[in-house]
Every structure is written in C-alpha cells, then in structure tokens.
Sequence to fold (451 residues):
Amino acid sequence: MGSKRSEMILVVDDELGIRQSFNMILKDDYKIILASTGNEALELFKANPVDIVLLDILLPDMGGLELLEKFKETDPTVEVIMVTAVKEVAIAVKAIKSGAYEYIMKPFTIDDILSVIQRALEKRSLIKEVAYLRNELEVRRPFEMMVGEDPKMREIFDYITIIAQSSGTVLIQGESGTGKELVARAIHNRSPRKSEPFIVMNCAAIPITLMESEIFGYNKGAFTGAFSTRIGKLEMANKGTVFLDDVDSMDVKMQGKLLRIIQDKEFERLGSSKVLKADVRFIAASNKDLKTLIEQSEFREDLFYRLNVFPIKVPPLRERKKDVPLLLEHFTALYAKQTGKEKKQFSEDAVRMLTVEYEWPGNVRELQNLVERLITITKDPVIRSKDLPSVGPRKAEIRDMTLKEAVNTFERQYIADVLETVGGNKSKAAEKLGIHRNTLLSKTNEPDSNS
Ligand SMILES: Nc1ncnc2c1ncn2[C@@H]1O[C@H](COP(=O)(O)OP(=O)(O)OP(=O)(O)O)[C@@H](O)[C@H]1O
Ligand SMILES: [Mg+2]
Fold:
C-alpha cells in the first residue's frame, strides 16, 4: 500500500510485451488493469472507475479512434493517451482533435510515460478542484446571501437546513423575484450533494424537442443534426441537484417523462437503449398557482404530488415588509463592494417610504434593481425620498393585468391628467397629446359607452 495512489489506469494493447512493460513501469504507483482487445477494454472500462487510458491506436478488433469515442461517450471526463508508432502519427493527431489528451510514440522512455500520465492526472484533478472550490465559495455563505429577519423567512431558513439532509423532491412556490432560486441553491449548498453539480433547467425557455435532448442527452445520429454524442443535464447533474425552474411551463407530455424519471430514477439518452441511473435530487420552482393549472389540465396532478414532497412557499415582499430596510442595506453594501465605491445610504424618510408606502410587485428583484439604479444616478451619498421614483400605491393593483389592460389603464389615466391640466378643454388636450380631437373624444367616450 504505502505511497500507492488511488488512480486507475487502463492499458489497452494487443502486444503482450507492451502490456507487460506498462504494467512494470506503473504498477507501483497506480492501479493497473490490462486489456488486449477493444471489446475487452470497453467491458473493463464500464466496470471500473478508470482515470486514464493508455490506448494503442491499432487493435485487432476495433480502431483506436472508434474506441476513444466510446470511452468518451461513457465518461467524458476520462483522459485518453494514444500510443502510436511513427507511421500512425496522422491518426494520433486526429485522435487529439477528437478529445484524446496526448499521444506518445513508440519507442518511448519510462520518463516519457510517467510525465504524460502525471500531467493528465493533474488536469483531471484541477478540473475537479475548480468545481469543488466554486462550490466551497457558495457553501461558506450559507444564508449570508439570503437576508431576512421576518419570522416567515426564519422559518424557511430552518426548514431548508432540515430538508437539505434528504433527497426528496422540493417544490418552491412564490411570486416572481421572491428568491426561489436562492432557496434552491441554499438547499443544495447545505446538502450532502454540495460538492456535486447544481444544474438549472429553465423549463419556460425551451420547446419540448429541445428539452428532451437537453435533459436526456443524445447519441450520435439519434436525429438529424446529432453529429456527436452529448450528455444531457441529468447526466451532468449526476449525484447533484437538478433545479427545474418555471416547472409550470413544462409541456404536459414532458411532464409525464419527468414523472417517470422521478419514480424510476432511470433514463436513456435519445437514440440509445442503454438504461442510465439518475442519482439526482429534483428541486422545482413555479410562480404560478399549480392547483389552478391542475384544474385547467395544464399540469399533471400526479407530478404535482411527486414534486410536492417538501413544499416551500416564499412569501411576497409586501407580506414581510420588515425585511425591506434590511434588504436596502444589504444591496447598498453589495453594490459598494462590487463597484469599489463609497457605500451610499438611504435617508430615514426614504426607507420609510419604500417600506410603508410601496407594495413591491416585483419583490426582492425589483428592490435590488431599484437600489442599483438609485446608487448609479444619485450624486449625493445620501439617497432621499425626493430621489425616489413616484411609487404610487396603484402599482399594487396592476399586477394581474395583461399588457393591453395595463396600457389602456395608463392611457386613460394620462388623458385624464392632461385634460385636468388644460381645464377640461378637449381641443387643447388633443393638441398636447398629439392626436386628433375625434380620437380623443372616442377614447374618452369609451368607458362611458360601456357603462
Ligand atoms: N432574501 C434575499 N436576500 C438577498 N437577496 C435576495 C433575497 N431574495 C431574493 N434575492 C435576490 O433577488 C433576485 C431575485 O431572486 P431569485 O432569482 O431567486 O427569484 P425567483 O423567485 O427565482 O424569481 P423568478 O420567479 O422571476 O425566477 C436575485 O438577484 C436574488 O439574489
Ligand atoms: Mg427564478
């Protein structure tokens, strides 16, 4: 045992002499497995956690390039070193283009071999380390990124800590901008899966055919345009978490497929019959009322219950207004840090207005954007109530309007305001508005004729 490392190297060569000499050189430092044919190599590769493959370009039963492709298909992170004679160098160069790490030419020295293996292993561990560090950064600020003192938020933080230990599905519901994605990341970052990937699937943005290939991946030739094998998000997320954002927008057919994966924990790449294991935790989010969508047959009830094992409702900001001053402080500090400029402050009056008089239909995201805008445009280090945009309470009402309704509402209000400034003189108002008097008359009569 002693200094023996845990990395595993697969040596594939049809010449016994070559296999033996690799084994001699490497066996003290690494775990070695040997194969003399392509098919044997593939079987061993699938059965063992191989880090590096030393691959002879010419094998009796299979071309080295073909084999390289199969290895990469099974595990895209494996590093393959081609072993070649001088006359096959052209093929070796092609292999590098198809993803081989390096080639070494026969005859080679022991140092050649050891150093190329060393470098390939370093590359592998660097890639893993970067992923790990990236995650560490997230983990170190468990809830620091999520501000909240309101009891409703405290309750959610406690709940996150508890359910992070499980692998059960989570359904996060809440209005847009309330922090659903932050909640999902916090669960992942506190879970035993934290050093594995957190993969976001945005269900709203993707049509079903694309979605299938994104989730499941595909084998070369699975459909027109599938020029190479690609792993899907389920495979990328292996041992980690998949975040299904805007799950309500998912096509109903796709919902059925998702349900099956959650139940069976198995799936196949498109164009492949090989069954793959899905060791992932699903966290879904929606800003729509899923119960209503179920009644309208737009969301599968069985999927809802599968997802809703651990339900989380993130309250809108207007229901936790105590957090507004805290969030204002949080984002001013954050922007000061990001820009390297002096931290600005909100006057007491401004804080009061933003807390008491405004309903925040866009929730935390709206508050964050407002802070960024105010910090940028306000010259004074103190942001006062006069600097705030007019935040009428009307904003709370228009949340549920379509764009057309909203435009009409604005138009009616604006016409009324202009009419007021010109003392109700319709000709003058029409001139100011840049429209014909008849148009104005028809617009102002509209509500009348309806009533
Ligand atoms: N409690 C919080 N503390 C600090 N920042 C927050 C908090 N909640 C939300 N944010 C910030 O507000 C923004 C919106 O949050 P997030 O993207 O998680 O919202 P969402 O609920 O997923 O919205 P949508 O439904 O529109 O996707 C993000 O920049 C996030 O960092
Ligand atoms: Mg979101």
User: Anything to note?
Assistant: Residues 446-451 have pLDDT under 50 and may be disordered. The longest helix spans residues 110-140. The chain has four domains: 8-132, 149-313, 319-394, 401-450. Residues 258 and 303 are 8 Å apart (CA to CA).
